[in-house]
Amino acid sequence: MAQIVYYFWAALHLDVRSNFISFSVPTGNFGDVFAGYIASKMGLPIKQLVIATNSNDILHRCLSDNDHSIRPLKQTLAPSMDIMISSNFERLLYDFYAERNSSICDQFYRNFPKTPINLEKHMWEKSKDLFMSYSVDDISTVKAMKDTYASYNYLIDPHTAVAIEAVDQINEKLNGNTLILSTAHPAKFPEIIKDADLELSQIPKALLDVYNLKERATHMPASKELIFDFIIKNNL
User: Fold this and answer.
1) How far apart are the C-alpha atoms of 153 and 147, rounded to whole Å?
2) C-beta of residue 183 within 8 angstroms of C-beta of residue 28
3) Smallest Cα–Cα separation from 176: which of 22, 10, 73, 14?
4) CB 3.0–4.6 Å: which of 11, 63, 163, 216 could bond 52 by disulfide?
């Protein structure tokens, strides 16, 4: 619900009340994209939601080829998107594809992920009305970081780079303005920035303070009760 707000905030600041706007969203778990979908249902004039994924491309495969099957998870330069089973995508299947028919949604997930989810043709073809997608590998991610810095003197993190590269690759299919959602400060990824031959000019004080704290770890059995009890006792 909180993420819905900045779709409206951004659109109002760009004054798109009489025109449509598209958003490119770097995503792994589909939560931010689903917020955009809800914003469009609430009346925000969104032309396209670009689902930008890294090499863990199950969402891209589902939207482009109706292939919602599990593949081995890859570690990428955009780790927050290293997700193969997107929990929030079930919400879209229920609300958008199955038109809020819970029995249809249950059939999709009854044997998943052992067996792939294959949408009926008339359901899958609804995707093109609102969604586009693209998958970006690590090499292209670094290239987008470098190109953005060279063109705009603006340093971006690898997740934002995925969203930018997706737009660059499918730009001819997009109409009007496309807003790219940036997800994190690049200072959170100092080694990736360094490997891309880029340089951090400054680190936010709040993040710098975290880096200077002592790292602590607590080991405990795999028990839900013990974990929740630990969280409650240490939530100071």
Assistant:
1) 9
2) no
3) 22
4) 163
What letters, b where the CB count within 10 A reaches 16 and e where it falls short, cover 9-25?
A: ebbeeeebeeeebbbbb
Determine the average pLDDT of the residues in 181-198: 91
Residue bearing tokens 């770890």? 217
Tokens 């360094």, residue located: 194
- Decide if pLDDT at 174 tops 70: yes
Token pair, residue 103, equals: 């029995």
Strand partners, 132: 50
- Contact between 148 and 164 (Cβ < 8 Å): yes
Tokens at 158, concatenated: 């690898």
pLDDT tens-place string over residues 96-119: 999 999 999 999 999 999 999 999
Q: Any residues with CB less than 8 A from the CB of 11 and at least 6 apart, and which?
A: 21, 44, 45, 179
Q: How do residues 140-170 score in pLDDT, each as one tens digit?
A: 999 999 999 999 999 999 999 999 999 999 9
Query: Token match 């193969």: residue?
Result: 84
Structure tokens at 120: 């009926």
For 131, list phi and psi in degrees, rounded to 5.
-110, 140
Nearest CA to 50 out of 174, 236, 204 is that of 174
> In terms of DSSP H, where are the helices of 66-200?
89-92, 102-109, 121-124, 138-152, 158-170, 190-195
Closest of 37, 23, 88, 101 to residue 58, by C-alpha: 88
Residue count of the chain, please give it.
Answer: 236
